[in-house]
Amino acid sequence: MGALRLTLLLLALLAAAVAGARPSEVAVGALFTYDSTIGRAARLAIELAVDDVNADRTVLAGTQLKLITQDTNCSGFLGTIEALQLMEKNVVAVIGPQSSGIGHVISHVVNELHVPLLSFAATDPTLSASEYPYFIRTTISDYFQMNAIASIVDYYQWKEVTAIFVDDDYGRGGVSALGDALAAKRARISYKAAIPPNSNADVINDVLFRANMMESRVMVVHVNPDTGMRIFSIANKLQMMASGYVWIVTDWLAAVLDSSTSRDLKDMSHIQGLIVLRQHTPESDAKNKFISKWNSVARNRSITSGLNSYGYYAYDSVWAVARGIDQFLNSGQQINFSADPRLHDSNGSMLQLSTLKIFDGGEQMLQQLLLTNFTGLTGPVQFNSDRNLVRPAYDILNVGGSGSQLIGYWSNYSGLSVTAPEILYHKPPNTSSIAQKLHNVVWPGDSTTTPRGWVFPNNGQPLRVGVPIKASFKELLAVSRGPDNVTGYCIDVFNAAIKLLPYPVPCQFITIGDGTKNPNYDDIIKMVAANSLDAAVGDFAIVRNRTRIAEFTQPYIESGLVIVAPVKKATSSAWAFLKPFTLEMWCVTGALFIFVGIVVWILEHRTNEEFRGSPRRQVITIFWFSFSTMFFSHRQNTVSALGRFVLIIWLFVVLIINSSYTASLTSILTVQQLATGIAGIDDLISSALPIGYQAGKFTRSYLIEELNVPESRLVPLNTIQEYADALKRGPKGGGVAAIVDEMPYVEIFLSYHCNFRVVGQEFTKEGWGFAFQRDSPLAADLSTAILQLSESGQLKRIHDEWFTRPSCSSDDNEVGATRLGLGSFWGLFLVCALICLFALLIFFIRICWQYSKYSSSEAAGEPSEADAAAAAAAAASVAAERQRRPSRLGSFKELMQFVDKKEEEVRRTMKRRSSEKDNQTAGSSDPQSMASA
């Protein structure tokens, strides 16, 4: 028991010693510019926060928070001096600075002295924890603000913006983040208008004038609050606040508007229609209480500036420091400072660097601050792994009248919305394009129509349009007397579309090629992608590899690869009538005629008198009947059911044979024939024949990469005459078997040369379009203009003007008539033969059945026993004759004799024999009855 009391006593003494070691006050520094929009709001907010902390017994119990402030005067040099002076006073943390530029400099100082730096206004994203480990941002990074702006740009489907920014760390860091955010939305910064710090009105005027020369009309302004308002008054003089312009301003303008208690209506007239971002702070009782307290103290101190959102972050920063110090002291840590051996005063130096001390517990204090987790005026004050505040969000305002309207919100959780972020945090995240919403906006010029966001630049520089000069096909593109006189179908379509645009577009045509050899079209598209050209106009096919590096308009003509091959007229001869069928077809057809004739003769011989007679007559009947059915002129009538069935099927076969023969003979005698036998792309690929293509076009790569045609088979051609010569010479004469090219070229080529024709079908589908740089808005506007040309019929009129040539007749445009072989009819012939065999089978089954009955009736009709003796001699002679011949041969002969008999005769004989049998049966029964009597 005594030992337990001693232990408790020692613990109590230790606790008392620790409590006694807790300092009575802790010094905290604050760095900001007193006389600034942000500084005026932050100064009073920090003082009120220190008072609230010292009045709160639950935080820093027994320890007072001592605030030491220094004025940085918006100067990097003075800010550094002030920071060094602040460090001499042994502060454990520094709140500030408000400037990102000063933040970069001071961060090196606090890194050396291990003093945490909590900035409530330095929003430059490049102030990263990896470079500055003792820097903690207690406001929202511009990284998130630029993502919010990119979401707005994407929401209104703009593709280019002009960035107007102050040329310092703050401005450059924000614009860099903006470029990355826009790239993720497939947009970009088309022009960067950098304003040097502390510029006068003339410099700003020059910067804005150059920005106005660019095509983008979406202006993103990222400057300092105290000098930024001059931009809009100068822009108003340059008529840049008129209809058609878009101004998106970062949160500095919201701080200016919130801090201006007495609105200057003249200044407000310069910013009508602007979209402004402001850090979102959720509504709460604590926030409303603080606003009331701030306004009351401000009135008492005659502070004319109002409270802005940076004041809220400054207030929460003080509380974060207080809670961090409290946790630091509660963990038993001591506040001690030690000299830095690397800091010493050189001989004669007055800087007194040796007075700067290292905070020994700086690392532990930093870790306690990073673990901060409480709800402040700005919402949850908590840091993620990147040391950014969780749940960054912005209000989106639209300036109009004497104030601003809230049109929506942006949060990193759900993107754009018209619902407050704190409500959406309780729902699953939804960043789909359908969920992104904003209220209606009144744009500059009091317009409610969403601006297009760009115009053709009025910088005096015309659109650089590259035009390929071809060695041939002048109907498409031609140059006469310099680049200014470019003509052709493609140029007419382009000029007609340009005239439909709602703004003037001066163009300068730049010819590419020497006119003797076709230029490489892929190289021209690469020139557009490399900004050597603004556009490319001509017969450019829209294919996959080109769309990766350039933007194409709507196709103005449909195109596709086809095959052109030489054709020849069929020469007439005395034996031309035999050409429709192959020899095999003729032989099989003739054999089938004879076979069907024999089958019908067999089926009709017993019942039809016209198929009977002498053997010579029957053979003639078979051949006459067979071949007369070819002309449906057979005179013999069929009377049996099986014969009529076979004849109907055969007449159907004859009808098909006649029709096919007539059509094939007509084709052979009238249409043209392929000289090489190539009837389509499959034949061309499977052959080893050379293939011609137009030099410079995508056809070569398509044949090699997609169809696996060896490069050795491809022959480049440039002119229409080279096309014709290569086809005429053919593979044996050093030419080509066929040419693969796009349909518009083929139409022009065939209008000059009528002895060539298109074979097969189009095996690709693409179109021609005008090429522009990636994401060029001019491409979309020209696509709309091309659709207008198509709907009005003007596009077809331009096509007919250049492509219609009456030199070649199109009556004989069919090629490739071929002889008909057995392969086209074997199915029909097989069906006919099977039907014939089936009819014969039924016929012979019926014959066998009749013969069986006929034989039975013959046996039944033999003489009785009383007459047997009288016929004994005759029977003996017949038996002897049968012994000399095989019985099977006799039966077959009797069967054939039976088959040769008429059907009617057989029936009479069977009927007569049946009657005789009945009579004999009656006669034999009479004697028996008499004998019994």
Describe the structure in your own words.
Its main location: membrane. Glutamate-gated receptor that probably acts as non-selective cation channel. It is found in: Membrane. Keywords: Disulfide bond, Glycoprotein, Ion channel, Ion transport, Ligand-gated ion channel, Membrane, Receptor, Signal, Transmembrane, Transmembrane helix, Transport. The chain has about 950 residues and is α/β, with parallel strands linked by helices. It has an 8-stranded mixed beta sheet, with helices on both faces. Strands 25, 26, 27, 28, 29 and 30 form a 6-stranded mixed beta sheet that branches. Helix 3 (about 75-85) runs parallel beside helix 4 and helix 5 packs across helix 6. The longest helix has about 35 residues, at about 825-860. The chain is elongated. It starts with a helix and ends with a helix. The model is unreliable at about 10-20, about 810-815, about 865-890 and about 930-933 (pLDDT under 50).
What's the total number of strands?
A: 32
Q: Termini separation (Å)? A: 159 Å
> Strands of the largest sheet, in order across it?
7-6-8-9-10-15-16-17
Briefly note the structural class of the backbone: alpha/beta
Disulfide bonds: 754-808
Main location: membrane
Biased composition (Basic and acidic residues): 902-919
Signal peptide: 1-20
Quick rundown:
Belongs to the glutamate-gated ion channel (TC 1.A.10.1) family. The chain is of the alpha/beta class.
Write the layout of secondary structure elements.
Elements: H1 2-21, E1 25-32, H2 37-55, E2 64-71, H3 76-87, E3 94-95, H4 100-113, E4 117-119, E5 135-137, H5 142-155, E6 160-166, H6 169-184, E7 188-195, H7 201-212, E8 218-222, H8 229-237, E9 246-249, H9 251-259, H10 265-268, E10 275-279, H11 285-300, H12 309-330, E11 337-339, E12 357-359, H13 362-370, E13 373-376, E14 379-382, E15 393-400, E16 403-411, E17 415-417, H14 421-424, E18 463-468, E19 478-479, E20 486-487, H15 489-499, E21 507-512, H16 521-529, E22 535-536, H17 544-547, E23 551-552, E24 557-559, E25 561-569, H18 583-604, H19 615-628, H20 641-670, E26 672-674, H21 681-686, E27 691-694, H22 699-705, E28 714-717, H23 720-729, E29 738-742, H24 743-752, E30 756-759, E31 766-768, E32 771-772, H25 777-792, H26 794-803, H27 826-860, H28 872-884, H29 887-900, H30 903-932
Parallel strand pairs: 1-2, 1-3, 3-4, 4-5, 6-7, 6-8, 8-9, 9-10, 18-21, 18-22, 27-28, 27-29
Antiparallel strand pairs: 10-15, 11-12, 13-14, 15-16, 16-17, 19-20, 22-32, 23-32, 24-31, 25-26, 25-29, 25-30
